Amino acid sequence: MIVRAFRYGYVAARIRGRKSWMLTKSDYESLISAEEISSLIRKLGETRYGKYFSELTQTPSVQQLEKTLAMFLEDEMNLIKSELGPRRAGLFNALYKQLELTTLKEVLRLVVFGLDPEMVDWVTPFGRYDTSLCRSLAQADNLGQTLSRIPEEKNLVDKLRVVADEEGSPAQTAAKVEIVLDNYGCGMVWRALQKLGGADKRCVSLVGFLLDMANIVTLIRAKKIGMRPEQILDMTTKSYYKLGEKIVAKLAGLPSDGEVVNQLATGAYRDILSPLTLMYTTKKDVLPVEVAFKRFHAWECEKTFFGAPFHLGETLAYYYLTRYEIEDIRAIVNGKSGGLPPGAIRENLVLHQPLTPKL
Predict the structure, then answer these.
(1) In this predicted structure, what is the pLDDT of residue 358?
(2) Does residue 357 fall inside a structural domain?
(3) Residue 218, Cα to own-chain centre: how many angstroms?
(4) Beta carbons within 8 Å of 299's beta carbon, 6+ residues apart
(5) Lowest mean per-residue pLDDT among 15-24, 53-62, 140-149, 199-208
(6) For residue range 306-325, what is the model confidence (pLDDT) as tens digits?
(7) Chain center to CA of 83
(8) φ and ψ at residue 82, rounded to 5 degrees
(9) Is 158 a domain residue?
(10) Rounded Cα gap, residues 239 and 193, in angstroms
(11) Residues 96/85, Cβ–Cβ less than 8 Å
(12) Are 312 and 8 in contact (CB under 8 A)?
């Protein structure tokens, strides 16, 4: 404990301090009840997002909102990495790079579909993939030329080149590119986890939960549209936690999406899925399943702060809670812009909500 306190004492105090500045349930209700987008933005300007939203217009465009939220997240990540120092920031370097790959994925989609390079203004810059690099990538003549410009490791570029050389429709190529980038990002984070020891191993459960969630949502959605088992397995992440490779393969071989949900409701995640089986049978809607998983994950992140202190898990939990808060802000703004009633907006939120979505 003394060694951990020496190693993480200052970082823990900083992280817990920043967590105390996160939006409260009262803040959420204030945003949801705002009559106009301009008043919602003004309310956000009174929170920890103040310096970011104070520069926005009263009715920001979708691009402005996304770039502002990404800027906040990037600053938080850079702060976390600087607080941890180079020797302890390995996991967060991997998470940071995973966010960069999300931006790369958006740019490559534009290129694959042959869209106007000016559409790159809709891409949310992050890290190395700033506005300048994104524009340079989008202006390439073809996918191969774009790949020659990306600042990534050779093995990732080589995997993407294999996809670029294969025959297929733009939709098929874009899907394969997404799979390559997602698997690479997940693998990178998972490998960083394996280097952790002692109390820092608590990070494994927080990341592993999300890996399983990604595979569960992929399995249900793919089965719903009638994909074959081998196609489904190509789309799943190749890093596993409670749902091992054999379990994922077995689920991919089930005859329907309903069977997948029913089978999962008897397994490791039955507490999350068993209340949702009837809903899924009648509505066939995957979104409540995804929301339920995120809410349970957020609760696990919160519980990290109730236990023994001084470990990397607290910092990771704060990172994920911040990600969910940003997702919720996006959902509230988009919901208000679309004229959704408060109840419908709350159904899509993660933080400060009941664990099981309203059925």
Answers:
(1) 72
(2) no
(3) 14
(4) 355
(5) 53-62
(6) 987 889 999 999 999 999 99
(7) 23
(8) -70, -35
(9) yes
(10) 11
(11) no
(12) yes
Residue owning tokens 């394969």:
176
Q: Report d(CA 271, CA 275) in Å as an integer.
A: 7
Residue 24 inside a domain? The answer is no
Residue with tokens 């209340």, as numbered in its chain: 275
Tell me the torsion sign for CA atoms 83, 87, 88, 94: positive
**Three-state DSSP state, 199:** helix
CA 311 to chain centre: 23
| Measured distance CA(341)–CA(335) in Å, rounded | 8
161 contacts 144 by C-beta, under 8 angstroms: yes
The total number of structural domains that make up the chain: 1
Helices and strands in the chain, H and E counts: 19, 0
Q: Please, what sign has the CA dihedral across residues 188, 191, 195, 196? A: positive
Question: How many residues are present in the chain?
Answer: 359
Supply the range of the domain harboring residue 159. 62-195
**Would you say residue 214 lies in a domain?**
no
Asked if 208 and 300 touch (Cβ cutoff 8 Å), the reply is no
- Write the CA distances from 77 to 18, 71, 80, 266, 340, integer angstroms: 12, 10, 5, 37, 32
Relative orientation angle of helices 203-224 and 287-304, to the nearest 10 degrees: 180
Interaxial angle between packed helices 312-337 and 2-19, expressed in degrees from 0 to 180 and rounded to the nearest 10: 10
Residue written as tokens 């208000």?
336
Q: For the stretch 94-131, what's the b/e string if a residue is b when 16 or more beta carbons lie within 10 angstroms of its beta carbon?
A: bbbbbbbbbbbbbbbbbbbeeeebeebeebbbbbebee
Q: Which two tokens stand for residue 228?
A: 């074959």
Query: What token pair was written down for 342?
Result: 């408060």
Write phi, then psi, for 113 (nearest 5 degrees): -85, 0
Euclidean distance between CA atoms 285 and 344, whole angstroms = 15
Is residue 5 predicted with pLDDT exceeding 80? no
CA atoms within 13 A on the CB side of 183: 17
